[in-house]
Design brief:
By secondary structure, the chain is of the alpha/beta class. It is built from nine helices and nine strands.
Amino acid sequence: MRFVIVTGMSGGGKSTALRMLEDAGFYCVDNLPVLLIEKFVELIATPEGEVTRVALGLDVRADQAFADVQRILEKLKGNGYTFEILFMEANDRTLLKRYKETRRMHPLSPGGRIEDGIRREREVLGSTRMKADYVIDTSNLLTRELKEELDRIFVQNEKYNSLIVTILSFGFKYGIPADADLVFDVRFLPNPFYVDELKHKTGNDREVQDYVMSFSEAHTFIEKLADMVSFLIPNYVKEGKYQLVIGIGCTGGKHRSVTLANKLYENLKDKGEYGIKIAHRDVGQSI
C-alpha cells in the first residue's frame, strides 16, 4: 500500500493536492483527529484491505498540538508502517495574499494578525518540512502545473525534482519581479521595437528571434548564462532550495527578454534533475 501524508503551510495548497490525489485514485481523508490517526492506519493497512493508495491530510490547528501528530508518525514508523510526506509550501507574501482574498483567519492567530500566524506555523512545521520526501512550492505554480507535478510523482512514479526553475521574461518599465532570485538585463542588445516590421511582434515570433540572435553578443550571453546557471543549480539543490526564479529583462518585456528567455529554456531543459518552466510576464502588455 502506498501511504502519503499531505501536510504543509495553511494556504499552501494541501486541500487542492488532496483533491487531485483523490482524482488520481487515492483514498483521501482530511483533518482526522489526532487520536484517530494510529487506529486509522492500522485499519487501512490490513493485508486483506482493498485500498492500495491512501492520502491523509494533516495540518496545524488551534485545538491540538502538532507535536502530537509528529509523535504518532514516529510511533507508526517504529511499528513498521511506511509512508511518504508531501509538504505543501508557499512564500509568506503569497500566503498572505491568499488569506486576504478568502478573508479567512489563520488557525494559529484567530482574530489576530495573519503574519503572526504564518510565522508561528513555520516554527511548528519546521522539523516536518525537513523530513518531507517531497516539498512543492505553489507560490508560482498554476493549478495545471501542480496537477502535472503530482501526477508525475504519484501516478507515473517518476523521479521527484526537488528544485523547480522558472525562467521569467519581463519589462523593466513594469518593475522587477518581486520573486526573482537572479535578474539579468539584456538591454545591451539592439531593440527590435525600433524596426517597423518587428515592433508589433514578440520574442515568440521567428522574425524577432532571428533579429535578436543575429548579434554575436546574444549567443555569447546565452552561452555564459547557461554555463553559470548549470553550475548554480546543483548547489542550490544541495542547500535545500525548492524554487529558483531567473528573471531576464528588457525595456518592455516583449522582444529581447522573451527571445533570450526562450533560448535559455531550450538550453537548460532535460539537462538535469530539476523541473523547469518558462513564463513571459509582460509579453501581452500594449505598446
